[in-house]
Specification:
Distance between the termini: 34 Å
CATH superfamily of one domain: Globins
Shape: globular
Largest sheet: none
Helix content: 55-70%
CATH class of one domain: Mainly Alpha
Strand content: under 5%
Radius of gyration: 17 Å
CATH topology of one domain: Globin-like
Bound molecules: protoporphyrin IX containing FE
Order of helices and strands: HHHHHHHHH
Structural class: mainly alpha
Low-confidence stretches: 1-28
Number of helices: 9
CATH architecture of one domain: Orthogonal Bundle
Length: 227
């Protein structure tokens, strides 16, 4: 992602117009960080996924998502940990400079981007990077994926942040975003001296992990019994 896009996003924010076969370890942390508004992972304020671990395992097998991918996701966590803000600058820069996408953060009356909504979602997005890199794809994680799905869908969009925005993110954009999200992540994976071969494997694991989530987030959009 080039500097122009990042600058565009910074300017937009500044002027208020801004616009995953489980492994045994490590275990899921006992508690997730609190203090991020609307981040309810692991609490009773999370929808229950209609899927069970066997369904997730079947899906992972179908996309060649293996324990090795989990290992490389976990390898990425210390690399990404102190770069999440810079990553989010790039991702938000892309959204800010793509009118079709920033629309979904816009006011439903005026179309103007809702800066507070963008900022609140950004904080949870930062946490999501670390949760994905944790690779603890247990039932709690699966449930939170369903919660995130509902938050993109008309069932729950806007509710978490009480945002006066448009009512739904049209599903077709969700898997589409897998590509910019994972393509722009790669340089960050390479920033801390990992070998090119490890960077490629971490990147491949991230592509699978984000695609897996984009698939899971499709559940509310698909007719009953057909997901
Ligand atoms: C690979 C695709 C995507 C990823 C990884 C992603 C990631 C996320 C995450 C982590 C959250 C916060 C979840 C939480 O509440 O904890 C979120 C919410 C949100 N995302 Fe996405 N997203 C994707 C696709 C999209 C697309 C295509 C749009 C359209 C611009 C979008 C717009 C939003 C909005 C508006 C929210 C807030 C929803 C609400 O009202 O609660 N996302 N996304």
């Amino acid at each position: 992602m080039n500097r122009t896009v990042i600058t565009l996003a910074s300017v937009a924010v500044a002027c208020g117009a801004a616009v995953m076969i489980s492994m045994a370890q490590p275990a899921s942390p006992a508690s997730k960080p609190s203090g991020i508004p609307g981040y309810t992972y692991g609490t009773d304020k999370v929808a229950k996924s209609p899927l069970r671990m066997k369904d997730l395992d079947a899906l992972k097998r179908s996309m060649l998502f293996t324990d090795e991918d989990i290992r490389f996701l976990r390898m990425s966590k210390p690399i990404l940990k102190d770069q999440t803000d810079a990553i989010l600058d790039v991702w938000y820069g892309f959204v800010a400079s793509t009118p079709e996408l920033v629309y979904f953060f816009g006011n439903k009356e005026t179309g103007k981007p809702e800066a507070e909504y963008l900022a609140r979602v950004r904080a949870r997005f930062g946490q999501w990077i670390l949760d994905t890199a944790d690779g603890n794809f247990d039932q709690k994680w699966l449930d939170y994926q369903h919660e995130i799905a509902l938050r993109h869908h008309s069932t729950k969009k806007n509710q978490t942040d009480n945002a006066p925005s448009v009512p739904v993110i049209n599903y077709r954009y969700i898997p589409a975003l897998t590509i910019p999200v994972t393509t722009t992540l790669k340089p960050f994976l390479a920033n801390k001296g990992a070998s090119p071969a490890d960077v490629d494997k971490m990147h491949a694991a991230w592509v699978k992990a984000v695609l897996l989530q984009a698939i899971l987030w499709g559940e509310p959009y698909v007719r009953d019994g057909e997901f």
